[in-house]
Specification:
The structure is a single chain. The chain is built from six helices and five strands; from the N terminus they run H-H-H-E-E-H-H-E-E-E-H. The chain has 179 residues and is of the alpha+beta class. It has two domains: 11-112, Winged helix-like DNA-binding domain superfamily/Winged helix DNA-binding domain (Arc Repressor Mutant, subunit A); 116-175, no CATH class. The strands form two sheets. The chain has a three-stranded antiparallel sheet. The chain is elongated. The mean pLDDT is 86.
Length: 179
């Protein structure tokens, strides 16, 4: 059995892939871009960050504050580079980004609107933090102490699909007048 390392793109192609990805998504953080490109096994973190820094230094992308995070956006110079050289982005990658773009947009919105965090305490317990956010404002935060990582991970995974109903239920229950 032979092992093949992941495909590595030349620097120019890496920059064009990043520009193409940034253009087809809402503003993303570096971590979000890495997760998206990791899905396709296209580039590693270091190649991506070097390329992002180059794009920003050349004025083809910008990194700007968006609340408590920094996001990347394409500039007019980046749009022009894609217009001139976008055909150098492999067709399979353009197709993949086109097909997965809406899914990624939904996933990015979901992780921003319903964030979760799992951590282990000094006592060895697992703590799951769940949130419902609107823009940068937390609408609800819930912290649970749980006996195992697996339980915390399962709850974190199901949170985005149930958070809205959970929030509405909590508001309804807490706003009822007692008789």
């Amino acid at each position: 059995m032979s092992l093949h390392p992941p495909r590595r793109s030349p620097e120019e192609e890496t920059r064009l892939i990043l520009l193409y990805t940034i253009r087809h998504l809402p503003p993303c953080t570096g971590v979000q871009l890495q997760q998206i490109l990791f899905d396709y096994n296209e580039m590693n973190y270091f190649d991506m960050m070097f390329a992002l820094n180059d794009l920003c230094a050349n004025g083809q992308a910008i990194r700007e504050a968006d609340g408590s995070r920094h996001v990347y956006k394409i500039t007019p110079a980046g749009e022009e580079a894609l217009l001139l050289f976008g055909n150098r982005v492999p067709g399979s990658i353009r197709q993949y980004i086109g097909e997965k773009g809406l899914l990624w947009q939904a996933r990015l919105k979901e992780t921003e609107q319903y964030p979760t965090q799992i951590r282990k305490t000094e006592k060895g317990e697992w703590v799951l933090s769940l949130s419902v956010q609107e823009k940068d404002a937390p609408l609800m935060q819930l912290t649970l102490s749980l006996p195992s990582y697996d339980m915390a991970a399962q709850m974190a995974k199901s949170w985005p699909g149930k958070a809205s109903a959970f929030y509405a239920s909590a508001i309804g229950m807490l706003s009822e007048e007692e008789t």
